[in-house]
């Protein structure tokens, strides 16, 4: 499995990292919430270990953003030092799949990650995002437009997946930036250049551009019916 650890306690993070790697998983780690969210959004993971108390952005907020703004359902196992019902409820309400209280046994962490991954893999198959002649399969990260496969860099795929979540709705720049990069970008050029690249690739594949610029508001996806 490809696992992301978001934990600011160095000793705990190192323990988790070494154990999971020794068990054959590929592991990435972040020590603060902002970096963690960025990684979680820009790379495909099979599971995320998420501490609640984090610098930059706490785990509850991070999980909420991952689910509601980035529309990602990567399985999240929350880790916390506190065994408080309130924390537990907040964790689940923010979209976490499971919960472990520190100190925990490393073997239990792995067992829960594997169980979450199995449940999730069963669900993902039906979760192809589709609108008219445009579709995105999150399992293979492949985009298909007007019968053609479209090769896109990961950030362009994220942009497209966000809009495919709600075709026809206008997405503001802020929403798209937050959903793809985990925060609002300092200059508007990053979003603009990725949007440009995405639209050009779609136009090449499908002979029309399904993304409309709604002046002063943002962008909207308008696909044609599949023929
Ligand atoms: Ca912490």
Descriptive labels:
single chain; elongated; 227 residues; Rossmann fold; Arc Repressor Mutant, subunit A; binds calcium ion; 2 domains; 8 helices; alpha/beta; 5-stranded parallel sheet; 4-stranded antiparallel sheet
| H-E string | EHEHEHEHEHEEEEHEHHEE
What is the level-2 CATH architecture name of the largest domain?
3-Layer(aba) Sandwich
Distance from first to last alpha carbon:
38 Å
Strand order of the largest sheet: 2-1-3-4-5
The number of distinct helices, counting runs of at least 4 residues, comes to 8
Q: What's this model, at a glance?
A:
With 227 residues, this protein is an alpha/beta fold.
Structure commentary:
β11 (211-214) and β12 form a beta hairpin. It is built from 8 helices and 12 strands. The longest helix has 19 residues, at 106-124. The chain has 2 domains: 2-121, Rossmann fold (3-Layer(aba) Sandwich), CATH 3.40.50.2300; 129-221, Orthogonal Bundle (Arc Repressor Mutant, subunit A), CATH 1.10.10. The chain is an alpha/beta fold. The strands form 3 sheets. A 5-stranded parallel β-sheet has the order 2-1-3-4-5, sandwiched between helices. A 4-stranded antiparallel β-sheet has the order 6-7-8-9, covered by helices on one side. The chain has helices at residues 10-22, 33-42, 59-68, 85-93, 106-124, 154-165, 173-181, 189-206, and strands at 2-6, 26-30, 47-51, 76-80, 98-101, 129-131, 134-137, 142-145, 148-150, 170-171, 211-214, 218-221. The chain binds calcium ion (CA). The site of calcium ion (CA) has 5 residues, from loops.
């Amino acid at each position: 499995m490809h696992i992301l650890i978001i934990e600011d306690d160095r000793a705990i993070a190192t323990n988790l990292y070494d154990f999971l790697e020794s068990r054959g998983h590929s592991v990435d780690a972040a020590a603060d919430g902002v970096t963690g969210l960025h990684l979680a959004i820009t790379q495909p993971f099979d599971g995320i270990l998420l501490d609640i108390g984090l610098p930059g952005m706490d785990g509850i907020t991070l999980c909420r953003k991952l689910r509601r703004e980035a529309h990602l359902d990567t399985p999240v196992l929350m880790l916390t030092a506190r065994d408080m019902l309130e924390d537990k409820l907040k964790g689940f309400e923010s979209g976490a799949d499971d919960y472990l209280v520190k100190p925990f046994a490393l073997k239990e962490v792995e067992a829960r990650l594997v169980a979450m991954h199995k449940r999730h893999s069963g669900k993902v198959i039906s979760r192809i995002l589709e609108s008219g002649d445009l579709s995105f399969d999150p399992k293979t990260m492949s985009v298909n437009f007007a019968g053609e496969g479209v090769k896109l860099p990961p950030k362009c795929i994220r942009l497209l997946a966000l809009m495919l979540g709600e075709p026809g709705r206008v997405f503001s720049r802020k929403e798209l930036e937050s959903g793809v990069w985990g925060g609002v970008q300092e200059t508007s050029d990053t979003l603009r250049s990725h949007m440009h690249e995405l639209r050009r690739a779609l136009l090449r594949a499908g002979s029309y551009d399904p993304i409309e610029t709604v002046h002063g508001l943002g962008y909207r996806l308008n696909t044609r019916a599949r023929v």
